[in-house]
Amino acid sequence: MRCRPWKENDSSAADERLAPARLKARRAVSDSCRPSPADLPEAVSVVGPVHGVLFLWTMAVLAITLYRRLLPIPHGAVVAIAAFIPFGGLFSHHLVKRRLAEGN
């Protein structure tokens, strides 16, 4: 449920007897609502660049790993694709860990 502020002259309060109850319920909902991360531009301006730098660092480490032939190119492609999928890093971590264990 999206939070929306209560307006005293809300047109949805058609029945005057229910207006105080609606006001109380609406205030309870708005008091319990928390802002989403998209509503915090200060946090987005800090976390966004940090996220971008970490992503570039991950791709650089992947490129170095492929250059040193520590990981086959098909596995590197899977790791790169998994970087764009939410929680894909969990799968790619398992893949890389298994591959490195085989090599030792």
From TrEMBL:
The keyword Transmembrane is assigned to this record: yes
Segments crossing the lipid bilayer: 44-67, 73-91
Any Gene Ontology CC annotation: plasma membrane
Cited InterPro entries: DUF3817_TM (IPR023845)
Keywords in alphabetical order: Cell membrane, Membrane, Transmembrane, Transmembrane helix
Boundaries of every DUF3817 domain copy: 43-98
Keyword Disulfide bond assigned: no
Primary localisation category: membrane
Compartment(s): Cell membrane
Protein's membrane topology: Multi-pass membrane protein
Coiled-coil zones: none
Domain of life of the source: Bacteria
This protein's name: DUF3817 domain-containing protein
Species annotation: Guyparkeria halophila
